[in-house]
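Standup notes, structure subgroup. Blocker cleared on the 3-methyl-2-oxobutanoic acid input:
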Amino acid sequence: MTETKVTAQTIRAMKVRGEKIAALTAYDFPMARLLDEAGIPLILVGDSLGMVVLGYPDTTQVTLAEMEHHVRAAARAKPRALLVADLPYRSYESVESAVANARRLAAAGAEAVKAEGGRAISGQVRAIVESGIPFMGHLGMLPQHVLEEGGYRVKGKNHPEQEALLADAEALAAAGAFALVLELVTPPVARELTQRISIPTIGIGAGPDCDGQILVTPDLLGMLPWYSLKHVKPKLNAAEQMRAVVKDWKKGVESQKPLKG
Ligand code: KIV
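Run returned:
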């Protein structure tokens, strides 16, 4: 990876060159800066923001104003990485709202936007791309649909789902998406999609055979000890370390002798 600014074209070219794409999420200035300094080429201000930062039960309560606020913070890191932002729930139901809201995220500092869905949003994708904003797709388990679907379920387990995933991936590529997140897609289906479409696939819980991988950074760092996920083994126990440091500091403060008056 060179030191030059990463663009959507750079990410596409990584697939052509056979270079794996390691992407992570960030929601603020220090996290974006640290990931960038570690050489991550694609940083996503995901609407996972809702759960991992704002304390919502899922992503459906995240607003565009909240996304703009956090995109601005991450963009202040001026990353070399491509900074992608999620269009939140119901912010891209029509072509007009999709373009207007993608422009708002771009004005906040996003260099590309992501939204969930395939053929159902291909008109919106085409219009966003035509407006000059690069677009990244998201297929498989769609967190913004958790309430309709009644939970988070692996996708691609049967033939109709496999056919739908392929048709959706092809529709997104044809509409101009530069890359595609595959979330909780069965590994053989993720592998087949990766071989069949020209744009990079970036997997999360979709097996090793995607063009890249993405994780929610607090999950990777073990910052959220209140739940565990099958597809992520934290590489750090940040929550435990933080508790220990805070307890130790508190003890130090409490053991200081009071000033005698
Ligand atoms: O919101 C998010 O963090 C995401 C990733 C899980 C890909 O969409």
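Discussed briefly. The chain has a mean pLDDT of 96.
Next: hand off to the docking folks.
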